[in-house]
Amino acid sequence: MIYFFVLLAVVSSVYVGEQVCTTFNADATLCNASGYCRHDGTICVNLPCYMVNEVAACRSGPSGSGIPTGALSSKCDSLEQFSLQYDNVCVDKGDGKLNFAFVRFSKTTDGSALQTTGTTPTGVGALAATEANMFALYTINPWKSPEASQSAATLQTELEAILDRYILFYQVLIETTNSHPFYLERTAYQALQLIRDQVGFDYTMRRAILPKIWQVAEIALFRIAKFSPAYYQTNYYFLNFASCPYSRRELKINGQLHTVRIDWTDYLYTVNGYMQVYSYAAEQFGIRNALSDIIALRPTTSVATANAINLDTGFTAFYLEWTWTDTNLVVVEKDIKLYQFDESAATATNVVKQITTTITCTTATKTCTTGLITTPITSATTRINYYFSYGPGKCVDKTEVQCKLSIEQGTQCNYNAGLPTDYKCS
Ligand SMILES: *[C@@H]1O[C@H](CO)[C@@H](O)[C@H](O)[C@H]1NC(C)=O
Fold it and tell me: For the whole model, what pTM was predicted?
């Protein structure tokens, strides 16, 4: 019996995940179906680790162990634990854990990206903003676009049509009693995942789509204030939402191995508004050295939506406190900085150090706190975001996935239209 298995192992010596991607150069279907390679039209290339579905490609054992050597095992490790919440099975070599910025939610197959589902299917662009149509709008699934078989330009058109419709519906979505914020949150994270993972999207396409995603996220916050006026918090790994009334005086948002607390005790408000926040993992936008998620504060004293979404332009006198739980992290106070940028930032130079505040760290409690920030954070045209960081970073070998929107600081990560690769990081 034992001899039989030894013989079998010798005969069938190629295991799942073992063949290097270039083996499939001539067969795009086999290449794409492998779960760890992608055909770029000419050759079959390795997928980035976080995009791998075939965990065998990331596994290897010591020589003599009998464990086959996966084709990507020199650049990826398999995750030690898998979750049913996401598709990820591999991580970059040495990372040791899932990176929240690169969580892939399983793409649902319900509905259509082009039209509503139901007795009278209606094209996305033809939906008038009414309550009945709001429920129809929910049935549209941006993930239903057949990515592999159509151009990135078509995909962009479809995605923008969906986001535009959510934006057009903002009053209905915010005001209607039966409007659930989840559908807005879902559309925002679905779209973020698409622009992160779709290799056909270039910098210009992503920059066109992104502001629309943030508009949908902001509409979600205004809906949340009416839906759950006391407190609300949701976490989708690379995107999070939270909201509470000013009278609570602080809000804590959790990211991977850290928390950011916003404290506005010193803000003397005359109207009890809402502190509204969405936050997102910095690394999905090329910011590799962030110590916290990017915190988008969107306070308001008016959730009435008759004409426009109104942010509280007087909101000021608050501080941010970063708490880390990563036991491997050695924090040196003088190196910790608060960076800020306007949501519309297009290049690395728009991301700047916040110079009006000093940062104080307490190792015992693992916290770093800013001084009082007294510059208003929103105006009619600005929406300032913050994050804690060690300062200018490096793309080094991570250009594959981390520089997509080119807002990382440092010349090595600047957008370079002349580069022949999709990722355009110099
Ligand atoms: C393989 O995938 C790429 C994109 O990931 C796509 O452009 C190509 O059409 C696919 N090829 C086949 C044969 O499915």
Answer: 0.90
